[in-house]
Amino acid sequence: MDSITQATLGAAMGHAILGKKMGNKAILIGAIAGTIPDLDVFSRLFLEDQIYGLVYHRGITHSILFTLVASPIFAWLSLQYYKRDLHKSEITQGILATWWFLFYGLIVGGLGFLTYTSHSLVAGGFLSLFALGFIPLIKTLKNNYAHRELISYDPSFKNWTLMFFLAFLTHWIIDACTAYGTQIFEPFSRYRVAFNNISILDPLYTVPMIIGLMGAFFAKKYPRQRFWNYLGITVASLYMVSTFYGKSVMNTVVADSLQKQGIEYTEYITYPTILNTVLWQTTVVTEDAYYYGMYSLLDKNPKVEFVKLPKNHHLIDKYQGEEHLGILLWFANGYYNLIEQPDGSIMFNNLRFGMIGLPDDSTIPVNDRYIFRFRLTEKEGKFSVVEDRDTDRIKPGEMAQTLWTRIKGK
């Protein structure tokens, strides 16, 4: 999922394991631990071609092996860090205080993005929240973080290991719940585990944990801190469980709709739209085409109306064996179609991530509605793949309004 969610979940795990001994420091340490697996994104700086990023992101650092091996290593390093009193230096305190400020800004800015709106009043509200929270944050950091002497400051190796283990484990578990998927069996297999039960951005999962952490951060006594943190974790976890129920309902509606409409299919996937788990999407595979549709759990009639999408798989027959194409095919896992462009290039559309707008939306050309797509070209006998980053066709404000209207059902 997104970085805000991963840092928040890691922070919650950090406080749950180390909070009694380290107080608010455990929140920041957990947030850092929760983002460690995503440092694999920096591998893109050393890649010959950015297409390899599809392979290396959510790869080995999101695996079971990494969780088991790296947890005790990071635990030992952390133990040495505190045993040698490196945490007491003014430089370290300044760096960590800066991290706190950035974490706060990330949360406030992230909430603004998650509730994106074109109205300047709401945008100004989030800026005001950031400004008003700055002074109390600095004061709290001074009293409860940088200058606070803890009663016990000696987490054991076991405590450290468990904290990192849970931070790494929960990181790839929730990543595996998204459509992007996670290679949890690396380096033994590149199979991507994807349960498709939650969007990569869902404030209803993230916000309860943020509230819980804020309550824990400002509470003075540990029992109260623990209560707030556990409350946030519990509410978020219950919401995550509920997403599987929504997916089950969607699966039933899709199967019933396909049968009633006489569509013979080989397989299908269901996945929620961005920011919620009420409005769901489906991509259906048939022998000669794909079908795409939406259904809201609030719809009065349990039915999915499909639009037919061409496969055109023959367009890449002559490129079979090309390494970059192989990566796209692996990542799409059978859910892709091809559209030839006027300039002779081919657009490779990954159908596991849905489309822009509603299935019956005629205001956007069908060829421009695919969210995740790559342009395939051949010049002077050289085959190349470039991700299409034409973001002008995506208007967040309009898209949010359209989705909200559809979420409410019809």
TrEMBL record:
<keyword id="KW-0472">Membrane</keyword>
<dbReference type="Pfam" id="PF04307">
    <property type="entry name" value="YdjM"/>
</dbReference>
<feature type="transmembrane region" description="Helical">
    <location>
        <begin position="121"/>
        <end position="141"/>
    </location>
</feature>
<feature type="transmembrane region" description="Helical">
    <location>
        <begin position="227"/>
        <end position="245"/>
    </location>
</feature>
<feature type="transmembrane region" description="Helical">
    <location>
        <begin position="59"/>
        <end position="82"/>
    </location>
</feature>
<keyword id="KW-0378">Hydrolase</keyword>
<feature type="transmembrane region" description="Helical">
    <location>
        <begin position="203"/>
        <end position="220"/>
    </location>
</feature>
<feature type="transmembrane region" description="Helical">
    <location>
        <begin position="162"/>
        <end position="183"/>
    </location>
</feature>
<keyword id="KW-0812">Transmembrane</keyword>
<feature type="transmembrane region" description="Helical">
    <location>
        <begin position="94"/>
        <end position="115"/>
    </location>
</feature>
<dbReference type="InterPro" id="IPR007404">
    <property type="entry name" value="YdjM-like"/>
</dbReference>
<dbReference type="GO" id="GO:0016787">
    <property type="term" value="F:hydrolase activity"/>
</dbReference>
<protein>
    <submittedName>
        <fullName>Membrane-bound metal-dependent hydrolase</fullName>
    </submittedName>
</protein>
<dbReference type="InterPro" id="IPR053170">
    <property type="entry name" value="Transcription_regulator"/>
</dbReference>
<keyword id="KW-1133">Transmembrane helix</keyword>
